[in-house]
């Protein structure tokens, strides 16, 4: 490691030049990486809802789907506007009353409810299909063009409209997220460290690795908007520790030990690599646990964040040393006394009566775990965006004026008999919450001959392989009512066509609910197991992983249990990701203090004295790290109008503080009370009386002594 450090310091100018030049391809990669704003696309391809959407696009050339409402137009104006929509690029078809039958057909012989579906007062409703998938750029552009054509009297609902508004909001706010995170983190670092300038140097070094991380996402083709929004902020928060460690180590070798600049930095690099290897591995393992999700958003976020941590480690021992050596003079000129208070008295108080803190641990554990397991979760994606967005306004209007909240689509084989289709439609119309069913048979009814049906509608609702029906529902997506409705409609469809499919936002969301509940359990188990064994390997202990992971899990229970007691409903993504992220990112705090405790215990100090010293030496670093993490995330939480982003960063910020409090008060008590067990089950306590010596028997130990 020292040899590597000497190479870095000797070639620091070349490393810095190469590092800066690499920003160019990274930036190009960043601007050419696609962004997906429809998280439902991360459902597994094996699910029926996903297969059905592929069939819809293949057989009917229909991808995205929106309900368009216009108000204040007479019939001629509506007909004209409908024609204008049909001429918009990537609009496959528009279904309205005049699409159903020719104008020559008498109204009396048509089902009256069909006209009621499309007209309410002075508002007219049309179903618009796009020839591209829901979140495709082509569908987004089509929604924007329809809104432009219709002006203020036009309202577009549906997932394509949701994705359009979400994209515009996210793209406007994402650069501000990073700016807020950098400014607040720099301020905290400037106050808590010993130089005003050093925090800026940290931001420069970390910023370069963030650009690398975001630029290399180009090779994935696209990332989710959630990943794009929080990856940079989270990478900044997590990898700041490595920069702090390098700076402290450099100062120790340079000024305390009197080494020359290059030698001091070479030793600092070597020590940093040795020290952060373990902590970075636990963090990377936490993120990679997300890759075990069936819902592949976890794979997307997990790989990007694991890659970010790895690049952060590399940057902290290559680019950052070059920056520090190059800017050492201004760093020294801006030195000041850190604003951290002396915590010696706190350390003494914590270890004086450890049993009290264990009792507190047990008292908190029950309510925390209960809240953690009973917090409510929402899955309706548009619940997490502001009410002022156009699609939210359109959805509200659709619900108020037409009594519709969502639409299902049914695909059945084209050879299902007309009689069976009519029976199926009758049963579906009798399902609670179903407003209407639009299909060839519902249009024709028993009295209308098929010959008078316009050819255009026949192509839109029936292909050589499948028939398409649209079901209007009064229930909201992700509600218990619509989930029951989805199951009931599925059962009816399957009774007439075992290959029949029910697709749409509600069906996809129900699938999402089913798989993410399983994913939460899997990801939690994988992350705990992985980090447990990594700590076991790093600390070479059987008992310390139990204590350390147990402490951080308590912090997680508290963090994710708070919403239950405050009556807050959190997004399903929070419930899956936060426990893994908090465990991977903050277990380092516990490892840091535990390592120091082992060092002090080996000097001959008693358990209480060793923990007291370790506490007073390690906790200031933990506080600096946690407050930096908090600063990098809390500002984004306050600013963001997208609840998934806001809530995730809030949980991260709060989790860092809670983990710090647990490590500061609970962990020391654990180390004191379980000291005898720890030294007998952990390698590295050879100088402590009664310690178990790995690889030697008690008889051999006695003889050697």
Task: Describe, in plain words, how this protein is organized in 3D.
The radius of gyration is 31 Å and the shape is elongated. α3 (23-31) crosses α10, α10 (196-216) runs antiparallel to α14 (319-326) and α16 crosses α26 (607-639). With 705 residues, it is α+β, with helices and mostly antiparallel strands. The model is unreliable at 696-705 (pLDDT under 50).
Concise synopsis of the structure shown:
Helix content is 68%, strand content 8%. Strands 2, 3, 4, 5 and 6 form a five-stranded antiparallel β-sheet that branches. Strands 10-11-9-12 form a four-stranded antiparallel β-sheet, with helices on both faces. It is elongated, with a radius of gyration of 31 Å.
Rg, Å, rounded: 31 Å
Range of helix content: 55-70%
pLDDT averaged over residues:
86
Number of helical stretches of at least 4 residues:
29
Secondary structure layout plus pairing:
Blueprint: H1 2-10, H2 12-21, H3 23-31, E1 34-36, H4 48-60, E2 65-71, H5 75-86, E3 91-95, H6 97-100, H7 112-118, E4 119-120, E5 123-130, H8 137-150, E6 154-156, H9 159-192, H10 196-216, E7 222-224, H11 225-256, H12 261-288, H13 297-316, H14 319-326, H15 328-333, H16 344-352, H17 354-374, E8 377-378, H18 390-402, E9 406-413, H19 418-429, E10 434-438, H20 440-444, H21 455-461, E11 466-473, H22 480-496, E12 501-503, H23 505-539, H24 544-566, E13 570-571, H25 572-601, H26 607-639, H27 643-673, H28 675-681, H29 698-704
Helix pairs in contact: 1-12, 2-14, 3-10, 8-9, 9-10, 9-11, 9-26, 10-11, 10-13, 10-14, 11-12, 11-13, 11-26, 12-13, 12-23, 12-25, 16-26, 17-24, 17-27, 19-22, 23-24, 23-25, 24-25, 24-27, 25-26, 25-27, 26-27
């Amino acid at each position: 490691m020292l040899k590597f450090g000497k190479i870095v310091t000797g070639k620091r100018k070349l490393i810095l030049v190469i590092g800066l030049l690499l920003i160019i391809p990274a930036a190009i990669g960043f601007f050419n990486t696609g962004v997906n704003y429809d998280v439902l696309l991360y459902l597994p391809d094996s699910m029926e809802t996903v297969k059905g959407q592929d069939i819809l696009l293949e057989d009917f050339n229909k991808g995205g789907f929106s309900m368009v409402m216009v108000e204040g137009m007479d019939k001629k104006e509506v007909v004209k506007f409908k024609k204008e929509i049909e001429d918009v690029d990537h609009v496959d078809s528009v279904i309205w009353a005049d699409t159903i039958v020719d104008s020559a057909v008498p109204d009396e012989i048509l089902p009256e409810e069909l006209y009621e579906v499309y007209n309410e007062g002075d508002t007219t409703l049309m179903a618009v299909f796009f020839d591209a998938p829901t979140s495709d750029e082509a569908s987004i552009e089509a929604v924007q063009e329809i809104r432009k054509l219709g002006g203020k009297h036009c309202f577009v609902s549906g997932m394509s409209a949701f994705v359009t508004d979400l994209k515009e909001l996210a793209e406007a706010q994402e650069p501000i997220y990073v700016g807020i995170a950098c400014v607040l983190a720099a301020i905290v670092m400037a106050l808590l460290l010993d130089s005003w300038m050093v925090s800026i140097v940290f931001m420069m070094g970390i910023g370069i690795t963030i650009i690398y991380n975001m630029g290399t996402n180009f090779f994935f083709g696209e990332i989710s908007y959630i990943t794009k929004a929080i990856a940079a902020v989270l990478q900044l928060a997590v990898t700041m520790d490595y920069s702090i460690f390098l700076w402290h180590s450099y100062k120790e070798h340079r000024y305390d030990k009197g080494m020359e600049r290059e030698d001091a930095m070479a030793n600092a690099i070597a020590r940093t690599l040795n020290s952060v290897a373990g902590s970075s591995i636990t963090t990377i393992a936490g993120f990679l646990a997300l890759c075990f999700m069936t819902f592949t958003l976890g794979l997307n976020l997990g790989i990007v964040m694991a890659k970010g941590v790895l690049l952060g480690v590399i940057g902290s021992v290559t680019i950052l040393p070059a920056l520090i050596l190059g800017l050492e003079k201004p760093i020294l000129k801006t030195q000041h006394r850190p604003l951290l208070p002396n915590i010696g008295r706190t350390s003494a108080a914590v270890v004086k009566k450890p049993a009290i803190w264990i009792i507190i641990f047990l008292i908190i554990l029950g309510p925390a775990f209960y809240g953690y397991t009973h917090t409510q979760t929402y899955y309706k994606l548009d619940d997490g965006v502001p009410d002022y967005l156009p699609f939210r306004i359109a959805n509200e209007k659709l619900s108020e004026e037409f009594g519709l909240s969502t639409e299902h689509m049914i695909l059945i084989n084209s050879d299902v008999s007309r009689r069976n289709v009519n029976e199926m439609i009758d049963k579906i119309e009798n399902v609670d919450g179903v407003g209407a069913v639009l299909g060839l048979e519902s249009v024709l009814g028993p009295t209308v001959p098929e010959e008078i049906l316009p050819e255009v509608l026949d192509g839109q609702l029936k292909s050589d392989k499948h028939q398409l029906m649209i079901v209007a529902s009064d229930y909201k997506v992700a509600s218990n009512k619509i989930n029951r409705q989805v199951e009931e409609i599925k059962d009816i469809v399957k009774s007439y066509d075992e290959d029949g499919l029910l697709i749409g936002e509600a069906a996809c969301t129900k699938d999402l609910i089913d798989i993410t509940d399983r994913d939460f359990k899997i990801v939690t188990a994988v992350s705990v197991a992985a980090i447990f064994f990594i700590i076991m390997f790093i600390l070479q202990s059987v008992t310390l992983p139990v204590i350390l992971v147990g402490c951080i899990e308590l912090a997680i229970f508290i963090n994710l249990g708070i919403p239950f007691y405050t009556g807050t409903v959190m997004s399903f993504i929070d419930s899956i990701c936060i426990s893994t992220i908090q465990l991977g990112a903050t277990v380092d705090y516990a490892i840091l203090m535990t390592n120091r405790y082992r060092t002090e215990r080996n000097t001959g100090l008693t358990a209480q004295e060793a923990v007291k010293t370790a506490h007073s030496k390690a906790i200031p670093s933990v506080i600096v790290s946690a407050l930096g993490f908090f600063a990098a995330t809390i500002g984004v939480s306050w600013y963001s109008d997208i609840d998934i982003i806001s809530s995730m960063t809030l949980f991260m910020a709060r989790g860092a503080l809670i983990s710090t409090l647990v490590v500061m008060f609970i962990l020391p008590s654990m180390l004191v009370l379980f000291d005898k067990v720890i030294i007998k089950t952990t390698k590295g306590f050879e100088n402590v009386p009664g310690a178990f010596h790995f690889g030697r028997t008690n008889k051999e130990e006695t003889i050697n002594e």
